[in-house]
C-alpha cells in the first residue's frame, strides 16, 4: 500500500518538476516519522522509476540522493538495489548509475543495526555487479577487437568507481567482512575476475585506467593485509643488537636442559616472529648467545652450557632451517647458506671471539666448524675460510696464554666428554651377573675428576638422561644384598649398591624427581625418594619417615652402631632395610643427645660407624635430619646441624684404604650432603662454596639487596650469565612472581630514553621465562593495573607506556604458546610445592646475591651420536607451540581481569594516558600476535572498542585494527566488526564535516 503511494508521489514529483527539498517534504508525509524508507522499499521504487527508459531519469536519481542525505533510505538498500539491475545492454542507464554511485561512495555509512546487518552483503553484491560490467566490456572487446564510444565511456566510469571503491578503506573492510558472510556470492566475484583476466590476456587489451587490474585483483582476493593499520613500531628493521636471545636461552638452559630440540626450536620461532628476524639473524643470535654464555663460565664445574652449545645448537639450527625454508628455494646438500652468513656476522665480534679463543686455548671458530661440517651445516671450504680469518688472532692469544701459564682450558673437558656416555650406558645394559666388576670400575671412573659433570651434561642435552637414570636404578636393584653372600662378591655388590645410590641421589637433587623419575616407580630407590629424600620446596614429614621404621630393626641397628667395630656379619638386615630404618636410629640418637643420655662422643662414634658401612647411609641419615630441621624452631637446629657436619668429616687414612674406591664415593656423598646442608642453613660467605649451577643458593641477605646486586651486573653487561639466571630463579621462588616482576618493571621504567627502555624490556621479557605463566599473571593482575591506575607520573606516558604495553603483549604471546599442562609440569625446576610451602620458604630463606662458581666445558657431537636425526618432522616442532583454541588458567583469568580494568579506563570519552595505554596494548597485541592471539581477542568486552573509538582520534585507529580484533567466521564476530566499523566511519565523517 505504501509502495503504491510512493510510486504515485514520484509520478507527481516528475510531472510538477519538484525540487529536491520539495520531494523531501512530501515524502515524509507518506513515510511515518522515525521509520526507515527501507521498510517500504523506497530505494526500489525510486530506481524503478528512474530506469524505465533507455536512459536514466536524473531528477528521480536526485530524489534518491536527497533521500540518502536525509537518512530516509540506507546506503545498503541503494547499493543492493543497484546490484540487481541486469539490463547491461542499456549503456546510458549503466553510465548514469555509475555516475550516481561515484557521487555517493564517499558518504557510505550506517546509522542503525538493521542497516549494519545489510551492508556487507550489499557491498559484495555491488562489487559483483561492477565486475560483471567490466567482464561484459572486456568480453565484447575480445570478440570484436574494438570498443564503441559508449562502451569506452562506460569502461572509464567503471574504472573510476572501482578506483574510488578500492581507495575507500571503510568499504574495503566491509567487503572483507562480506567475504566471510556471503562466501557463495563472493565466489561470483572471483569467477567474474577470472573471466576478465582471461579476456584481457587473450585480446592483449590494456584498460585505459592505470592500475585497474591490481584494483580488480584486490577486490577479488581481498585480505586483511589490504586494510590499513597504524603500526606502533615504526622501526620495522630489527635492532642492531638483540638483548633478548641470550637471556632467554640462559633461562631456558637453566630450567629445561632435558627438553628436546623441538622445544627450543618453538621458543626461537616465537622470538623470530616477535622480532622479525631473518633466518641469518636468528642463527647469528643463537650462536652468539652460546658464546656469550660460555664466556661467563670461569671454572669447569658446570658443563651444561658447553654440551648445549656443541650438541643442541646445531640441531636447533637444522630444524629451524627445515621449518623456515621456502619450498621453492634450492637447498645445498652440504651446507646451510644462512649459517655461513651468520658466521660472517659473528666474525665482526672480535672481542667475543678473542675471549673464547683465550679460554679454550684454540681457534674456537675452527674447532666448532670442524664438528658442524660433519653435520652439513657448513662444508670444508667454509671451515678453512673462517679458520684462516681467525688464525692470526688465535695464534697471538695462544702464545700469550702459554706465556702466562694459565690453567687448563675448557676445551680439554669437552674432548673428555666425547666417548664415555655411550660406554657407560652400554655397560649398564649388559648382563649384570657377568659384568659386576667391570661395571663397578666404570661407575667409579665416572666419579673421577669432572667426568660425572661431563657425562651428566652430555646425557642431559642428548635426551638420554632418563635412560641413564633407569639403567642406574636397575643396577641399584640388582645390587641389593643377597643373604649369605660373602667375600669379594659381597664387597663388589655393596660398593655397586653404594655408588649407584649416590649417583642417582645426586641426579635427582640436581634436576628434581619429577624430571628424571616416573610417578609410580616400584624400585627401592624410587620409593626412598618419594618417602624420604628431602627436595627443595618438596619437604618430607619426618614423622612419616619414622612410621616406616621397624622397631626391632632400629633396636638392632642402634646396638650394632654403638659398638666399636660394626661389621654386622651375622645380621640378616639388608642394605635397603638399613636405609629405610636409619631415620629411627638417627631420631633415637638425636633425642638421647638432647636429653643428655648420650654424650657428644657417643653420638660421634655412632655417626662414624654409620658412615663407615656405606656412604649412602650418611646421605639417608642427612635426609632425615633435613626433614626434621624443617619442622622445628631455630634454637633446635644446632644439634642436627652438628650431626650433619659430622657426616662431612673425612675418615682417617686407615678407613680410606680399607675400602674400594673410597675417595670418589666420599666426594660425591659430601657434595650431596652439602647441598642439603646449605638449603637448611645458609653459610656466611658464598665465596667458600663451590656448587653446581643447578643448585639453588640460600643467603641471609635481604631479597632487595640480592636483586640489586644481580641486576647491576646484568645491566652493565647487557646479558644474563648462567649464575645470574640461577640467582634470579631463586629470587623468584623466595619473593614470588609479583615481587620479581614488579622489581623488573621498575628497572624498565627508570630508563629515560626509549633505546634503553627497549633494551631493558627485552632482558625483562627473557627473565620472565623463569615462570612465564605466573609472571604474566602477576603483570596483568598486580603490576600493570597498579602502575597505570595509581601513578600519574611521566612513566605512565610515552614512551614508558608503550614499552610497558609491549612487555605485557610479549609475555602474553609467549604464555599463550607454551605447551600443555603435562609438559608444563616438566618445564621448570621450580618444584611444584603448594602455595603454603612456597610462602613458608619465602619467609624462612633469603636467596644468595651471587652465583656459585660455575664453569662450562663443552661437548661436541660425533656422527654416531646425533641428538636428533632428520626424521624429526616440521609438524612435531610446530606442535610444540601451537596456538590453543581455549586458554588455560591462570592466563584466561588474567586476561579477563586486565580487560575489565581497561573497560574502567575508557568509561569516559576523554582521552587520557590510561586510554592511550589501552589503545597501545590492543594494537600491539594484534600487531605482534596476528592470528595466534585470536583466543585472547575473544575475551574482549563487547563495548570496549566502541568506548575506545569514541575517546581516540580516528587517525590512530584504522579499519585494519578493527577487522583483526574479531573472529569473522562467526556471526557475532561479524556483527561486532561491522558495528565498530560503522561507528569509526561516522566519527570520521563527523570530523570531516567539522573541518569543512
UniProtKB/TrEMBL annotation:
Q: Check the record and name the Pfam families matching this protein.
A: Med24_N
Keywords attached to this Swiss-Prot or TrEMBL record, sorted alphabetically, are: Activator, Nucleus, Transcription, Transcription regulation
Taxonomic superkingdom: Eukaryota
By its UniProt entry, which InterPro entries does this protein fall under?
Mediator_Med24 (IPR021429)
UniProt-annotated location(s): Nucleus
- Similarity annotation: Belongs to the Mediator complex subunit 24 family.
Instruction: Write the protein's name.
Output: Mediator of RNA polymerase II transcription subunit 24
Organism the protein comes from: Musca domestica (House fly)
Q: Which gene encodes it?
A: LOC101901038
